[in-house]
Predict the 3D structure of the following.
Amino acid sequence: MTDVLKAPAPASAPASRRGTDARTARRRAALEWVAIHSLGVAAALFFVLPFVFVLLTSLMSDNQALTRSLWPHPFEWHNYVTVFHTAGFLTWWKNSLVYAVSGTVLTVVSSVPVAYALAKFRFRGRNTALMLVVATMMLPPQVVIVPMYLFWANQMHLTGTLWPLIIPMAFGDAFTVFLLRQFLVTIPNEYVDAARVDGCGELRTLLRVILPMARPAIAAVALFQFFSCWNDYFGPQIYASENPAAWTLSYGLETFKGAHQTSWNLTMAATMLVMAPVIIVFFFAQKAFVEGVTLTGVKG
Amino acid sequence: MAAQTTGARTRPGRGRAPDAPPADHARRGGRGLGARSAPYLLILPACVATIALLGYPLVRNVIISFQDLNAFQLIQHTTQWTGFSNYTDQLSSSTFWHTVLRSVLFTLANVALIMAAGTAVGLLLNRLGKRMRLVLQLGLVLAWAMPVVAGTTVYQWLFDSQYGVVNWFLAKLDWHSMAGYNWFGHQFSTFSVITLMIVWQSVPFVALNLYAGLTTISAELFEAARMDGAGAWRTFGSVTFPILKPFFLGTTFLEVIWVFKAFTQVYALNAGGPEGSTETLPVYAFIEGVGNQHYGMGAAISTLTIVILLALMSYYFRIMLKQEDDL
């Protein structure tokens, strides 16, 4: 932690260039290189070590997981098979996938028009709408959970399914709208005007002109949404917990943990299996992700 | 997959926009969409849904907060109005004010650490060699991609009193009293673990973003600053920060929201314990309302939480509105 915080300190070295002695300068540069790269190693370790521990522990035998030694001997690949055969694990996986994929598609499709309207139109009530978006973003879901739960349970009779989680996604998500709008604002208005002059309706302008330009941002918010659905713990806990057939991985992992209290090796193998899809998606889409986030975040 | 067939498309149209300008006789759909009604039509479905899924619960929440609604009344289907007594109970209880103070301090400390560490790592990324940068980026991505529940499990295990790596390591360093230390038995140590975890999870977003932002600043600016003899701090203060100010403002805002809202981390790690001493406002509202089935009281806490949040965010609202007017 402290290593990370100290990061910028050694950077003060390069400044004085006036030193005429070339050797001193070179030595200084070399020292600086070493300092910066040691910090880099320290920071990388800080972020990666928990993950490494998880991986190693997930491959240990039951007995070894309770000892201090860190390197698995022998490698117990069977742990993963055991986890897979846990009652319900595949169902949790399927539910998470359904929730994350449909949630992502619905959110993106429904949020784009809202973001477009808030970015490219001036109209009465726009500031109010913007405030509403930001206020929605801020609201902790816990504070409306009682009436929300009563609504889905008594009026809709949908608790114990994934529907209370998925249906709201079809009407836009505040965070997605916010990020997309930040990006769309940076697209010069001339493009929109030109399209209108050419006789494009608003919908055509949005689909043909704006969407292709906004592809990186859309990729980024889609990934964000996928992760947040996949990782969502509170929603499934509230709406799906009463019916094990509707549990998602994140909620299932908690119960798994409870059922295997001292079997850290199995818990960690389960953790790896929860993480795997997210990491795979992330690696395939990393470039688009960082690109899109940059565009939405920096030039806001 | 059946889920995807629900009204996925948000079709503009259907019903009138709430306060559309009266002079406008816009046609719906396709080409003829009047430019003036278009924005209203585009945001209409989201507005309706927000009112239904958020406005309604908020109103109900306020109504419930004036009732004495516990498990007993819920089963009996009786309504007992108590006026402001839930509010006066909370506002005069030291537990509530301690929780408020704790939430605010918790948010401030975490956001400060996240922004400082994130900025440091972002700047570091910019200075590393290509290969080392890739390694660090990989580490950041792994930390970022780890689901919160999984991350919580990992940190519970790392800090486990008997089998945890941390205690083992501290004991190795000859700090033997730490061998069986119970990190989750005290307020400060629990908060330390939560904070470490949240910082660990949040820094990648800030760092990767900042690095990406840094790459958009032309190298000549940094060169010029160096020529003028500016050190690293000066360069950051007079080149990097001013250029990336929108980034810092926006990111800080998002982090404040995320940390204040952090529920899974606090709740799953130690359920607000020991003895409620690490409950933040969302956790407190949840445990009091849903956990202890004091729905009326929980609703009052929720309403107060919203008021506090709005007060904390009013400054940002002002900045944002000013920016909008400049657009």
Summary: Chain B touches chain A through 128 residues (CB under 8 Å).
